[in-house]
Amino acid sequence: MLAAAGAVLAGFLVAPLVRGLVARFAVPEGEPWCAACPLCGREVRLLPPGGRCPGCRGRLGAGPWSVELVVAAVAVAVARAADGPSAAALGWTALLGVVLGFVDARVRRLPYPLTLPLAGGVAVLLAVAALAEGRPGVLLRCLLVACTVGALLELAVWLGALGPGDSPLGFALGGLLGWFGWRAAAGGLLAAVVLAGLWASLRAAVELARRRPVRGLDVPVGPFLLLGALLAVLAG
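RESULT FIELD:
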């Protein structure tokens, strides 16, 4: 209970930063990053739970308390799944993963300024963890899993089934799941596919109930890749 309470507290402490990053990067393709409030010009860095600009009170980024609840839930899950040396890599993935999930859900894109630092941070932190545990050989498995998952998603990108940001996200998540083994990586990828399929089916059913066309239904894959990876780590 104390660990869970501490994780929730830590989640709420970083939530203003996460909100600020979501507001900054949740912009449509081709538009500049939102470095300042479009209404008053105040720099966007930290945002309160209501999601309003501290200067003009205009609405920015995600809905009220949505980020805080997700960050707290993910923090508890990471605290439960952390196995010591890999805790830093899990925390880094959780921090940027929540930002990427909200951004992809809002504007259907996974920006490289987020996915590349995620992949680089995971690589460095896992290398430190492997050396700390005296298991440098596990890094080869992490690299192989990362390349396999990244290549599979890149193939889907070439086929037009995914966006360009999904493959670097898959590379980062594959490297992290490689720490826990091939089974965890396969389980995480399978969970992502199943969850995305269920969400697409639900969306299609709702559109049909409203007598609207369902062709071209746009489903963000990033949040499901992240959720699948989290479930795989928890299951391990």
